[in-house]
Amino acid sequence: MKISTISKTLVLGLSLALVSCAETVAQEAPISKEAFEEAHSIVTQNCVTCHAPAGNPTTRIAPPLIAVKDHYLKPDMTEAEFVQSVASFLNSPKIENSQMPRAVERFGLMPKLGYSQAQLEAVATYIYRAKLDQPDWFETHHQQREADLMKYSETGTQDYLKKGMSIALSTKAVLGKNLLTAIQTKGTSGALEFCNERAIVLTDSMSTELHANVKRVSDKNRNPNNLANAKELDYIAVAKQDIAATGEASPKMVEDNGKLIGYYPIMTNQMCLQCHGTPNKDITPETIMTLKEKYPQDLATGYGIDELRGIWVIEMDKPE
């Protein structure tokens, strides 16, 4: 289906931001003047409304373009590698293709655009070469966000921390999609059958697909197989303190016995309360009966919105 100009404006803007200066740095690869001008037009005309460098970092609906460039441009990366990375995401906007997992979690993913591969590569080239304006708050905000991100993680694990976050978000997306389908087709009580029989199976399949050991655990578990161990409980306790103090918890990445292990918070939302909220208030009598039948030792109720339900634990092999 052809995407409208307005849709392109909103969608492309979620992954890009306004370029207010078209000065360019030295070019590494040939690109026609026409293609470069078209890329400039796509970015500036489609994103100008909502994604200018100006704007409050707490209220904006997408990161500024300088932040996109900063996350995708790795040390010693060539222009061709940068273009391939950005264009790959724009062509197939999936969590595993993104270099900005925290932005994806905050702003969400965009659908696939209606631009050609050549246009997407031209846009990526423009981002690489253009001298981009940045908000006054950007440098301080960026440094603080990076410090918060790495607060509990070991030195040198930042890339693995972000990779683990992408794995956790990819798994969350698969489970969430299947759970929502189950709720829509079977109701909340009927959807518990999916949680009871399929959730761990799907998590295991994602482990195989993403080449990492993925699990969900909690201090107030529903399934006995999801009970947190001592190290996981330590992180959960710290995460709860963070949330009480600031409203959000920093993830954690450590090296343990030759493995890289990441811990990522799972927060409740309104949908969660149908099975994890207060009985007879958020949870219907029918669902309560099903919970007692399938999970006689259930501890996972009594939650409100934006509380720590549990954590993702992502275990990856350390590269040689």
Number of domains: 2
Distance from N terminus to C terminus (CA atoms, Å) equals 45 Å
The helix content, as a percent range, equals 40-55%
**Number of H/I helices:** 12
Shape, per Cα inertia axes: globular
| Sequence of strands across the biggest β-sheet | 1-4-3-2
Compressed to H and E, one letter per element, the order equals: HHHHHHHHHEHEEHHE
Return residue spans where pLDDT drops below 50 for at least 5 consecutive residues: 1-27
* SS-derived structural category: alpha+beta
Summed over residues and divided by their number, the pLDDT gives a mean of 82
Total E-strand runs: 4
Beta-strand residue fraction: 5-15%
Largest sheet: 4 strands, antiparallel
Report Rg.
22 Å
Question: Could you characterize what this model shows?
Answer:
This protein is of the alpha+beta class. The protein folds into two domains: 5-143, Cytochrome Bc1 Complex, Chain D, domain 2, CATH 1.10.760; 150-317, no CATH class. Helix content is 51%, strand content 9%. The chain is built from twelve helices and four strands. It has helices at residues 5-15, 33-47, 65-72, 79-91, 101-107, 117-129, 138-149, 158-197, 199-210, 230-246, 273-276, 285-294, and strands at 213-217, 252-256, 259-267, 308-317. Strands 1-4-3-2 form a four-stranded antiparallel beta sheet, sandwiched between helices. A hairpin with a 2-residue loop joins β2 (252-256) and β3. It is globular, with a radius of gyration of 22 Å. The N and C termini lie far apart (45 Å). Mean pLDDT is 82; it is low at 1-27.
